[in-house]
Fold:
Amino acid sequence: MIRILAVDDERPIAELLRLSLGRAGYQCTCAYDGIEAANLIEKETFDLILLDIMLPGIDGFELMDYIRATNVPVIFLTAKNAVADRVKGLRMGAEDYIIKPFDVLELLARVEGVLRRHGKLQTLLQIGGLEINTLSMQVTRDGAELPLTRKEYDLLLLFAQNPGVVLSKSTIYERVWGGEYPESTRTVELHIQRMKKKAGWDDRIKPVYGMGYRLEG
Amino acid sequence: MIRILAVDDERPIAELLRLSLGRAGYQCTCAYDGIEAANLIEKETFDLILLDIMLPGIDGFELMDYIRATNVPVIFLTAKNAVADRVKGLRMGAEDYIIKPFDVLELLARVEGVLRRHGKLQTLLQIGGLEINTLSMQVTRDGAELPLTRKEYDLLLLFAQNPGVVLSKSTIYERVWGGEYPESTRTVELHIQRMKKKAGWDDRIKPVYGMGYRLEG
DNA sequence: CATCCACGGCCAGAATACGAATCATAAGAA
DNA sequence: TTCTTATGATTCGTATTCTGGCCGTGGATG
Structure:
């Protein structure tokens, strides 16, 4: 069951979110201010948070700071003409935003998109002799768990989600680290190297000279 | 990887474009005025350009003149009530336009549409007995992979995307290497030669004396 | 037929990309 | 706190690819 937290101080909106998402098969909890939201996030775990920017008490941006550490994807809700807010939100690590008033179908499409990108819709990925559980973030080979670090896992998942595709170093950097690729360092190579080794994918992930890396079938 | 250039002098908008497109899997670069855009277009190659009309310095229309020569599709960004601009833009060869403020989903839909019309979303290209997979960047003949270097691949793809068209050496240089064609070297001939050989296209790619090269059907 | 110039083929040095090892710092657990 | 682990910058070595120069060939032009 996928759990979603909807944070909005306007009760009718929050209720609308809860009902729409509930109908679509998600388990949705509501919070009506920043404090309540923070408490819930502390106490429970969610797969996705829908966050209104304008909140009494702690506002959405402050809450974002808090949420970011938990790595839970956030879609935030903004008023029609608050472009600056949207940018600020995306900068702060939000996955997407929805402009109020929103269409319920659009909402569902975006929720699904974000969940898919985070691998929360499909919980088991089998590839290259490995089994990746995207919910528990565990990777196993023949039932034995691989002790992967955070970056290694992210990398592994990126390749697993794009088998056969050449991923350039800048793409990899943007997807795993975020931000612009710093040409001068060898960070990406280094981590690919470590991940390959742990995953036993030394022959599977191959460098494509001058282009990037590819996970072969 | 599909590369998009977003030209807009309003930083928040440009940033919004970059983040949204980036999240959708495109590689997006920003320029904040006409000069910067022109320089980038000169230096790199893009698959699509998003162009704001109102720009300081060189405006969007002037830039359009410049871009048209490069054959890169353009989507205009216009203000809500600038109907005349829209018409002018389409007349000048823009592929589509988007009215600001725009919805990100709409933007993505239009971007996808334009890319599809230009065959840039196509991942499998079959020509001259070869099959080119632009995602895995692999070229196969009868199922056997051709070991191409980066420049060879870029060249092959350029010809494959322009069958029957005479490509001048300076055009080829600009598209594959970027920057101005250095008359004094034989780099282009050399690489075409190698590529032809590996691809088995010795009789397919023919020199057009004094003009360039053409891939014959 | 003679001349000019574009193009093909080849080579070696230059440039670049990648892998491995090492070290310093940051983040996290005990 | 202290210890451990994770992360990322740096350096070096090697393999691969790129490039410029030279020469030969052959088409274009008169």
Remarks:
- Chain B touches chain A through 20 residues (CB under 8 Å).
